[in-house]
Amino acid sequence: MKTKALAKQYFHDFIPYIWYGLIVSAVYILFGLLSVDGAPSLGYQLKASFFMAPYIITIVTMIGISFNYRRFKLAMQSGVSRKTFWKAKMLFIAKATLIVNVVNVIISFINMKLGPSETYLYYQAYGKAFSNVIAQSISMFITDYVVLLFIFVAMNTFGTMTSLMNKIGKSIFYSIGVVCYMFFTNLLTQYSSQRLISRFYAHINGDAIFNFIFSIDAKVPRPYPLIGFTIVLAIIAALFNLLFTKLEQVKR
Questions:
Q1: HSE of 233 in the Cβ direction (CA atoms, 13 Å)?
Q2: Statement: residue 98 has pLDDT above 90
Q3: Contacts of 167 (CB under 8 A, 6+ apart)
Q4: Integer-rounded Cα radius of gyration of the chain
Q5: Among candidates 135, 124, 147, 154, which has minimal Cα distance to 215?
Q6: Burial letters for 120-136: b for 16+ Cβ neighbours within 10 Å, e otherwise?
Q7: pLDDT per residue as tens digits for the range 8-20
Q8: How do residues 188-239 score in pLDDT, each as one tens digit?
Q9: pTM for the model
């Protein structure tokens, strides 16, 4: 019972981030329309701006999902175990993913009404998966949900990990992250590094792996392998989340 009550409270605290995402999306669309100058028509600019709305909402809600210490503090004040806290987080994330996915899919359908369905990533990959509109819509919803669930679990796991650090630890951690990003970005521009990556990719038969996951070479590509692979990743992320949850948390 405490698990459901905590998850309900976490979701209640999360709802504003959905509104923030909608507001940021609306502002982005508005600025896109106001920036129309000359060549692009108003309708074209509306389609181009509206296309980004689901991604903006996802990014904003990802930020809300990643915050962990306040949820941890509420769980400890409620006198629950770390495992119960983890279960409450996972239940909350599953519910939050469902609501965000519903919002994103509705916006995506509106976007497809404004322009071709190929502007939506699912239809670019699996537009011919099903001839039945209802089956295609259900497949799209499930695929989006599973992928978004993995992203949210991974982001909360990242937030849980960083909540184990104090301010100095976080500063060092983020600084190392920036340095590593700059190092690897620079490394990827080097011909020798690109050649090494190409050899490694060929050695592990990367084309076959990607073809299997995304059904690229299939006569009628369907998202089943992608859904299965993403579920496995989500389970792995959830297990790491449990590991970090059992450790001592400090204020963010």
A1: 17
A2: yes
A3: none
A4: 21
A5: 124
A6: bebbebbeebbeeeeeb
A7: 888 888 999 999 9
A8: 677 677 677 777 777 777 667 777 677 766 676 778 888 888 999 999 999 9
A9: 0.83
Query: Tokens standing for 91?
Result: 């239940």
User: Distance of alpha carbon 88 from its chain centroid, rounded?
Assistant: 19
Distances (CA, A) of 220 to 53, 208, 213, 216, 227: 29, 17, 14, 9, 16
Sign of the Cα torsion 41, 43, 48, 50 reads: positive
- Exposed, middle or buried, 214 (CB in 10 Å: 0-12/13-18/19+)? middle
Amino acid at 164: L
Cβ contacts of 50 within 8 Å, gap of 6 or more: 29, 107, 110, 111, 114
The secondary structure of residue 231, as a DSSP letter, is H
- Could you tell me which of 212, 202, 178 has the C-alpha nearest to residue 194? 202
Amino acid letter, residue 27: V
Other CB atoms within a 10 A radius of the CB of residue 232 amount to 11
Q: Which of 138, 49, 154, 71 is nearest to 101 (CA)?
A: 138
